[in-house]
Amino acid sequence: MIKLDDRLIQISRVNKKFSNWSKVFKCEPELFFMVENEDDIIKIVELAKRYNKNVRAIGAGHSPSDLACTDGLMINTDNFNKIIEIDLENKTVTVEAGIRLYKLNEELQKNGLALSNLGSISEQSIAGAISTATHGSGINFSNISSQVLGLTLLTASKGKINCSAEENEDIFKASLCSIGALGIILKVKIQCESAFKLESNQFPMRFNDILNDLDSIIDSAEHVRFWYFPHTENCIIWKANKTTKESKPQEKNYFRNYIISYQLYQFLLYISRYLPSMLPLLNQKMFNYNFSQEKQFIDDSYKQFNFDCLFPQYTSEWAIPLENTKEALEKLYDWINHNKENVFVHFPVEIRFSDKDDIWLSPSYNRKVCYIGIIMYRPYDKPVPYKKLWAEFEKIMRSYGGRPHWAKAHTMTTIEFEKTYPKFKEFIKLQKSLDPNGIFLNSYLKRHLFDQTDVKAKL
């Protein structure tokens, strides 16, 4: 039986069930801790070492995989979320690892600063976003991890390690996308820039027209992404550039955004579980209702980068070399529209772009990439058929040199990672050095990093 001191008793809970945001993966940790400071986390890691327990730190639990799951000790970092320092002269911010991106965005805005690029949501903790190389879109912009100047990592064998490009550089490059395998991130120093507005332009375009002009479209704005509506010819393109123009934010429309696009759409998706052949028509109608007209907005950068992901979903996303984008999308389009297995797909297929970096396990390591993401919604948290789509999607992504997004469920094996990541073996060597007894490993990490089957998360 695990013995806790008074402080750990105060912040611990038993019989706490955890599920990720999409409610696809669940687990029951032996002990669940709501930490508030570094000392709490250090005590828990020492506890894990003493009793040979696995330990995982979680933030929002937004990863649509079992990456956060454990049957050992689980550390929730929601209250480990302070801003330690804002350096206005050098435009940097140092924060505790549990701070959520949306809170960080708001605090930076108050101080006239902003992150250079963001993903589609800001619910994640900064440590979670870094650990999975969360990205936005813009071919000359790298992922969020690349904006980090330094961090403090709590390891099993060496305690706290400060690392940056000047100090413990190998650990730094590995920890910037470590999927929690090296230790627990305690604090992060991030390079920001002056707060800025983005002028966005969103408009419809035909799928083939985009592919025929893909290179120029990718370079046509600072930030470019587009969404394809399966079983149709329709896409919407979103472009955004910095501006000093007066704000023109998106107006909220309760009936359109909540009643029709959320509640009615979710109900129709629920019906489509029994009548999947209605999905092509539903995709077309939703496009016509919400996306067939051009839209222009001007607002603070973080408000423009983010959008509503609606309700829980199965999701898969892979990064392929930029030069393979057109062929891969053509093949995916052809399968979606002509597959003989009667597989029908929800909208959207999301296409984004990212610059290369030198982070060891980043999907954009040493290459510019196109991220392609697919989803299947779970209306009212109910399951929908998705495995045939996933299998074909992964087959296509593999054939074009794809690397899966670490936060999302995938079937990539250790041998495949060794082939596609030049620094993979070095990462594993470092992992064994910093965590010799594997206390930070869980089913996900054992499965993908070491080809060990230890499935305790429930799908």
List the helices and strands and how they pair.
Elements: H1 6-11, E1 12-13, E2 18-19, E3 26-27, E4 31-34, H2 38-51, E5 55-58, E6 73-76, E7 83-87, E8 92-96, H3 101-110, E9 113-114, H4 126-131, E10 148-154, E11 160-164, H5 169-175, E12 184-191, E13 193-194, E14 197-206, H6 207-212, H7 214-218, E15 223-228, E16 234-243, H8 254-272, H9 279-290, E17 295-300, H10 301-305, E18 313-321, H11 325-338, E19 349-354, E20 369-377, H12 387-399, E21 403-404, H13 414-420, H14 424-434, H15 443-450
Parallel strand pairs: 4-6, 5-6
Antiparallel strand pairs: 1-4, 2-3, 7-8, 8-12, 9-13, 10-11, 10-12, 14-16, 14-17, 15-16, 15-19, 18-20, 18-21, 19-20
Helix pairs in contact: 8-9, 11-12
